[in-house]
Amino acid sequence: MIPSILLLSLAAIVSADCPRSFLKNLTETYVRAQAVGDYDTFLSIINPTSGYRENGFLVSIPDSMPAIPVHIDFTRSVHDTVQCATFTEIIAATDPHPYVIHTRMEFSPGDPQARLIESVITDKGDWYFNAKGTLALNARESWEAIPKEKQESREVIRGVADSYFDRFGNASVVVPWGAPCYRVEGGFAVNGNLTASGDCIQEFPDSIYFPYRRYVIDQEYGAVDVFVGFPGLDSTEADKPMPDSHLFRVEGAKIKYVHTNSACVSDGCGNATMPQPT
Ligand SMILES: *[C@@H]1O[C@H](CO)[C@@H](O)[C@H](O)[C@H]1NC(C)=O
Ligand SMILES: *[C@@H]1O[C@H](CO)[C@@H](O)[C@H](O)[C@H]1NC(C)=O
Ligand SMILES: *[C@@H]1O[C@H](CO)[C@@H](O)[C@H](O)[C@H]1NC(C)=O
Ligand SMILES: *[C@@H]1O[C@H](CO)[C@@H](O)[C@H](O)[C@H]1NC(C)=O
């Protein structure tokens, strides 16, 4: 007979949960590697058989973004202890080559080598790109941990993000969105109208459908990031939508903040009048 104490520890090993400390170590390692352009360190956190993708394309690690040192002005990471996944936002506004990077990593419990890493990397020419604007807007926001009794369930957090994306293709969907009522779209604030009851009314198109949604959820911070394909902006090929990541902060079951990071397939996403950094 197997002693029950051993069964308990076996249960812990096979559980899908990943401790926050385990995941934090990996996001911190990733950010350090990116800051100095140390792709050997980056290699240490990805399984050699895993593919690494930038803006949807497979990239060899020596030619990857983590091989280039980037001056990081701000970073935050989201840790999903249930799915054993992470999301990291990097704003490099004062680098000679400004970037905004969103990275999603998937791990298997106990294995510090990711089974998948993918990044949406934006720079000049991408959708409303302006890293200085992203940095300034982000600096005004508060993404503190949410007290236990005010934390929403994973389902509610994910549902809020889903309603946002569903609304792009269905005018009947109500998006629960509260104050302060703006979205950081690239590096610009897109403001909505705040009603007397505290609801944020934003403008949406009605005919854009979002496939390929990949979620990273952190209940403690009310955070969910969703990697999606943003169809129809500058790609006529339905199977090659624009690589896109949206990070949400959900409080009181409503959107508080949204950060979008959208990589145009071609510069300007087909919009010659799109504002660009000066
Ligand atoms: C992550 O954990 C490894 C192994 O314990 C350790 O060597 C490394 O210093 C840690 N890295 C960070 C960024 O905490
Ligand atoms: C559109 O959204 C409404 C409200 O959530 C829902 O009842 C309806 O089924 C949706 N329509 C489609 C085509 O998904
Ligand atoms: C916000 O209010 C302004 C002024 O009333 C109006 O022009 C605009 O269409 C409103 N926007 C939305 C998304 O309702
Ligand atoms: C193109 O950019 C301009 C300037 O920001 C904006 O007013 C317009 O709505 C954009 N067009 C599309 C299709 O997004």
Describe this structure in words.
The chain is α+β, with helices and mostly antiparallel strands and 278 residues long. It has 2 domains: 4-123, Roll (Nuclear Transport Factor 2, Chain: A); 139-270, Nuclear Transport Factor 2, Chain: A. The chain is 21% helix and 31% strand. The chain is built from 5 helices and 14 strands. It has helices at 4-14, 20-36, 39-44, 131-139, 154-167, and strands at residues 52-54, 57-58, 74-80, 85-92, 99-108, 111-122, 182-185, 188-191, 193-194, 200-201, 214-218, 223-230, 242-251, 254-262. The strands form 3 sheets. It has a 6-stranded mixed β-sheet. The longest helix is centred in the first third of the chain and has 17 residues, at 20-36. The chain starts with a helix and ends in a 16-residue tail after the last strand. One 2-acetamido-2-deoxy-beta-D-glucopyranose is lined by residues 271, 273-275. Keywords: Signal. Residues 1-16 form the signal peptide. Residues 150-261 form the DUF8021 domain. InterPro entries: DUF8021.
